[in-house]
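Work package 3, deliverable 3.1, input record:
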Amino acid sequence: MTPLVIVIIYLGLLLALGLVSSRFFRGTSRDFFVASHSIGPFLLLMSVFGTTMTAFALVGSTGKAYTNGIGVYGLMASSSGLVHAAVFFLIGIRLWAYGKKYGYVTQIQFFRDRFESNNLGYLLFPILVGLVIPYLLIGVVGAGKVIQPVTKGAFPSLFPHPKFAGGIPPWVTGLVICAVVLIYVFQGGSRGAAWANTFQTLVFMTMGVLAFVLIARQLGGAASATEAVLAKAPDHLAREGLITQRQFLSYLLIPLSVGMFPHLFQHWLTARSAKTFRLTVIAHPVFIMIVWVPTVLIGIWAVGHGIKAPPNAVLGATVARLVHNPIITGLVTAGILAAIMSSLDSQFLCLGTIFTNDVVLHRAGKGRYSDQQIILMARVFIIAVVAVTYGLAMLADKYEMPIFDLAIWSFSGYAALFPLVFAAVYWRRTTKAGAYASIIAAMAVWLYYFRASGWGGEYTVWGGVMPVALCFAAAAVALIVVSLATAPPSAATVEKFFPTAQKPEAAPSKAPVSA
Amino acid sequence: MQPDRGRAARWAVYAAALTLAVLHQDFWLWSDRHLVFGFMPIGLAYHALFSLAAATMWALAVKFAWPTELEAWADAADDVPRQSPVEP
């Protein structure tokens, strides 16, 4: 029961944080969606880091190291440290500037203006929403898988089914997690999410390091723990035989997905100023290292010490078997939930934001609804998204769908759209037709390989190349060829989005937007 | 910072990022199982160091290649019409 009590206290603290953040809510839609551009450097760093880490950070990294060895760090962590920061520096600051100047709240608003097309928004909307769904499933399903073994035997009369062994079943955990996230997002909007993310990031970083120190101590020290791996599973200390060089190289494209994550775009827009990004750009690679090095080591130590568990349960199983302390088990469980929930909140909020702004308000026109009505619409859509996610998560859990592989497919889809955002901010010659061609090519190739993988399984081509490489190449080639073959964008649009090229002091004129 | 110096610094950042991307592919350590400090596999230690190198590179980028003109442009001319349907 002790671990469950600690988790309940943690969830209670999150709700309290939501309540406090609601006292700062200014009652406007801009405050609900982008916190009135008021978030400072520390909160931006923590919220962006917490949002990008997901359940992968603690559970996935340990599980993948358990199956694939130390190469997982280079595959996912050090590559993200380089590429994520590059995207924040090269793309994030520019999008923040456009958002600040022209009042954008969503990516789609930016793309509609940049490519002078309303319909581009309607093409992008289902793609952005569809790709975020698997990402949401990781959270809800992952939370259920963490809580059930920790509470095993605590409620034998309440949950007598042998599958749950008296522990809390995933459907209850999913319901509670979704409800808590909904409450604090409703109370504080994007400010509430940023505050909660900061608290959650501190929790999961601390708990990851704590688990590492305690496990190392129980194994007789870090050196002794690794010696056991050298004796029993030496292949896990290198990459040969576990990861191919082509896979390692093509994985470098996957972190580009952060450039097209709609929830990250929204976090960028909450920044008080461009300078706010500086801490995020510098500290992000270090934060990834602080979380991933300990968890990757725990993963290989688990192999060396014969711990048998499904990959996603390795961290929990190792803590339970080696630490024998219900308080520590509770704290680590709270840390895992923190990593999960710090992504869920931003994703829920962003889906409500893009539906309200890019579909409802875009069609209804400016001034049709009051701020209170706009916020209500966003909240109703968020509830609908949460309900759909919850239903899909229960199905995914029932049929044992490979959620971590699904997440890689989600990241691959967003990464395939990266040429679009990169060209939108750096290549003035990019045209509307080029943008359409790039999106269609990216999604066509992505769908082809997604189907070939059996709708979400692990899949590579040409001896280890990740499909993201082909999706990305198709999108980039289509964008360049079609843009060069079609008429350039209007002078007004070029002047509006490339201010340093000519007259940055001039007030940009609004380009006519056509279908 | 002078515009020319800013441009040069930005190109230096692109070159440094590209160099790091190449260094990320450490095929020379692919099958190396040596331990550093007695517990850290060398392939993991290399990539942990790589994370620190990336942070250092981005710190230098922030100091010498920060797009100050972009920030000034975004903050200037508040009379620009807002595109968003939500309140400004």
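Residues 501-515 of chain A have pLDDT under 50 and may be disordered.
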